[in-house]
Design brief:
The protein has nine helices and 13 strands. With about 290 residues, it is an alpha/beta fold. It folds into three domains: about 80 residues, Winged helix-like DNA-binding domain superfamily/Winged helix DNA-binding domain (Arc Repressor Mutant, subunit A), CATH 1.10.10; about 90 residues, Periplasmic binding protein-like II (D-Maltodextrin-Binding Protein, domain 2, 3-Layer(aba) Sandwich); about 90 residues, D-Maltodextrin-Binding Protein, domain 2, CATH 3.40.190.10. The strands form three sheets. Strands 3, 4, 5, 6, 7, 10, 11, 12 and 13 form a nine-stranded mixed beta sheet that branches. Strands 1-2 form a two-stranded antiparallel ribbon. A two-stranded antiparallel sheet has the order 8-9. A hairpin with a 4-residue loop joins strand 1 and strand 2. Helix 1 packs across helix 2. The longest helix is centred in the first third of the chain and has 29 residues.
Length: about 290
C-alpha cells in the first residue's frame, strides 16, 4: 500500500524514491485515500510528515493485510511445488485399464502422497472446462490450445487363442475371415486390412472391449483389438496374432494438458514420468513418441 510506505518513511520524497514513483503522484494517491475514508491520515508540513491517529489505525490494519497476503502466497507456492494431492485424469476405457492404471501405480511408488482420480470412458472432454489435469487421447489432431505430447503409436491387430486356432485353423488371407467366428465392436462392420475395408459378420457384437478380449482368451473367436491391450497376453502365449503380414493402419496416443502459467508440480512430474515409463517398459516396441 502506498500510504504505508509514506507512513514508514515519514517523507513523501523518500517514499516516492523507494516506490519508484513521482512525489506528485504519491501525494495525489494519499489524498484520494483520505477522501475515501473522510479523515486525515497524515499531517503535512514543509519539512515533516506526521501520522494521525486514524493513519496509525490504517497502518496497523495494512500490516495485518500484508502479513495475511504473504501467508496465502506461501501456502499457494507450497501447494504448487509439492508433489502431493490428487491428479485427475481421463482416458479411453481400454487404455485406462491396460496402461494408465499401471503408470499411476508406478508413480505413486515414487510419490506416496499422490492420489489419482481416473475417468475411464470414451468421452472426449474439453479440458478447458472439465475438471481434469490430464487426458490420454487417441487422436491424429490434438487440440491446438493444449500441450500435447505424443506417447506412442498403436495398431488394431487380429488375435485369437491357440485353442481356437487349433480347432478352427488359422486364416492365411483376409478373405478367409468370413469362415471364422468373429468378435467385434458395434461400429466394426468393416475391418481395415491391407488397404481394404473387409466386411465382417460377427457372432458376438459388444461395446465392451474387455468382453471381446475375454471371449478371445476363452477360444470363442477372432477379435480385433489395440496391440497395447493384448501385448501381455501375446507375450505369455495366451493369444496369437493372425494375419501378421497384413498391413494395418496405425494411430497415435497423446497426453494432453491445459496450458497453465503455473502448472502444479505434481502434474508436471507425472507428465514427464509417463514418457519415461513408456520408454523403459515393454511399450518401447510401440513406437514411443517424442516431446
Amino acid at each position: 500500500m502506498l500510504f504505508s510506505e509514506v507512513a514508514k518513511q515519514l517523507s513523501f520524497t523518500k517514499a516516492a524514491q523507494a516506490l519508484g514513483l513521482s512525489k506528485g503522484y504519491l501525494s495525489q494517491q494519499v489524498k484520494q485515500l483520505e477522501s475515501e475514508f473522510k479523515t486525515p491520515l497524515l499531517i503535512r508540513s514543509t519539512r515533516t510528515v506526521k501520522v494521525t491517529e486514524g493513519g496509525k489505525a490504517l497502518l496497523a490494519h495494512a500490516e495485518e493485510i500484508k502479513q495475511s497476503m504473504l501467508s496465502v502466497e506461501r501456502i499457494l507456492r507450497s501447494e504448487r511445488d509439492q508433489v502431493s494431492g490428487n491428479i485427475r485424469i481421463t482416458a479411453p476405457k481400454l487404455l485406462a485399464q491396460s496402461v494408465v492404471a499401471d503408470i499411476c501405480q508406478a508413480f505413486k511408488a515414487d510419490y506416496p502422497q499422490v492420489t489419482f482420480t481416473l475417468d475411464s470412458s470414451y468421452q472426449q472432454y474439453d479440458l478447458t472446462a472439465a475438471d481434469f489435469d490430464l487426458a490420454f487421447r487417441a487422436t491424429s489432431t490434438p487440440p491446438e490450445n493444449m500441450i500435447a505430447k505424443q506417447l506412442f503409436r498403436y495398431r488394431h491387430i487380429c488375435i485369437a487363442s491357440p485353442e481356437y486356432l487349433a480347432r478352427a485353423g488359422s486364416p492365411i488371407s483376409i478373405e478367409e475371415l468370413t469362415k471364422h467366428h468373429i468378435l467385434a465392436a458395434p461400429h466394426d462392420t468393416y475391418w481395415p486390412l491391407d488397404g481394404q475395408q473387409i466386411g465382417i459378420q460377427a457372432w458376438l457384437v459388444s461395446n465392451d472391449n474387455n468382453l471381446l478380449l475375454s471371449q478371445a482368451l476363452q477360444g470363442n473367436g477372432i477379435a480385433r483389438l489395440p496391440d497395447y491391450a493384448v501385448k501381455s497376453a501375446l507375450n505369455d502365449g495366451y493369444l496369437y496374432e493372425i494375419l501378421e503380414t497384413v498391413e494395418k493402419p496405425s494411430h497415435n496416443i497423446y497426453l494432453l494438458q491445459p496450458q497453465l502459467i503455473y502448472p502444479p508440480q505434481k502434474v508436471t512430474l507425472f507428465a514427464q514420468f509417463v514418457l519415461a515409463y513408456l520408454k523403459q517398459t515393454s511399450f518401447a516396441g510401440l513406437h514411443i513418441g517424442k516431446q
